[in-house]
Model the fold of this input.
Amino acid sequence: MSPKPRQGTLLADVGGTNVRFALSIDGGDPDRTEQFAVADFAEFELAAAAYLSQAGLSPRDGVFAVAGTVHDGLVHLTNHPWKISAEGSADALGLKSVRLVNDFTAIALAVRHLAPNDLEKIGGGSGVDDSNIAVLGPGTGLGVSYLFRAADQWVPVSGEGGHVGIAPTDPFQDKFVGILRDEFGRASLERALSGPGLVNLYLGGAGPQPSLGPAPSPADVAGAALGGDPEALAAVKSFSSMLGAAAGDMALSVSARGGVYVAGGVVPGLGDAFDRDEFRTAFEDKGRFAYLLKSIPTYLITHRTPGLVGLAHMPT
Done:
């Protein structure tokens, strides 16, 4: 029997908790999407091989979005021990070529390809066409990216905006920043705006005997908030406010009149406990520039795999 012809591009969206795979044929939308737990595999290539075997696929090339800084074809995940090499992955998986990009670069590229029912609008105007866009997302860490319009092209700009410092805006946040400095030596946004950050916020405000115990998981805090637990709800309220303030700062930094998009797994997991009013109020609370922020729309991305959508539409 002749070998199966190689076709399509293997897409992989690699986070600190989950890795999602799909196939794209000739730049088409992601197909055959599957998710695996990162913790179940010692190496990325083992997870990819499991997906390909399970799906019966033989792709030609690969393009992978990874939650970390890509340098010289190599990336170390920020919140997991995996190391991924473009050359090594191509060799291990029998691919002609592999491209590595930051995971939020992929999400930035996705926003213009999402349908209206893939988004929940949270305040603001309609946005300005062909204007800058900002994307941020609390997950295992905090991802940040931008999409700029330049020379009639959309250009994604990646960075490590999740590791900038926190600008506290109320007495609790003042105290919380001190707690983070004492524990970690520095108070970065990711220490608050992520799954582990939600736990930090809960423990920072719950007092000496938190009802969920001394080491709750992000899912514990989210579930307690959805169940009406007052300490968990207070943590989520602070999370919502701090996320809105950070999103507003990013919008100001690049004049993101095209909109600010919130991705990641944490906010959808909070459901109705996520305080949209607190988020939007903090987003707009920018003193003399409140008028500008009031006009900028904010969206929650509800599509389950936006990173794969962005990878499928990655410019060659």
